[in-house]
Amino acid sequence: QVRLVESGGGLVQAGGSLRLSCSGSGLTLSSYAMGWFRQAPGKERELVAATSRGGSTYYADSEKGRFTISRDNAKNTVYLQMNSLKPEDTATYYCVAAFRWNTKEVVTTLGEYDYWGQGTQVTVTS
Fold this sequence. Notes:
This protein is mostly beta strands. Helices cover 0% and strands 50% of the residues. The protein is built from no helices and eleven strands. The mean pLDDT is 96.
């Protein structure tokens, strides 16, 4: 069974940190461009961060300097380190994977991703 499994969400106070993890089952994540989207209640899904197979990265403006996306191919895992969290970061966070031959391409379009995880909830209290 092919799937992405997220973990690491939880409840944290504003200013705190969390690290989300995304593991591939039946997927070799080194063959995929990866990303993290989030969706808050009543809002559309938005891209938080993305990385190419080769490690190039993209961040939404509001996340620059606070979030870091990284990958450990040996562990078949992608991470999202989130620092200086704000109440507006509260959302369900989804890991996504897009198969790419090109190691340099960062995928920033929702519809181009092939696989989605089930999501992990992040709640930031003020």
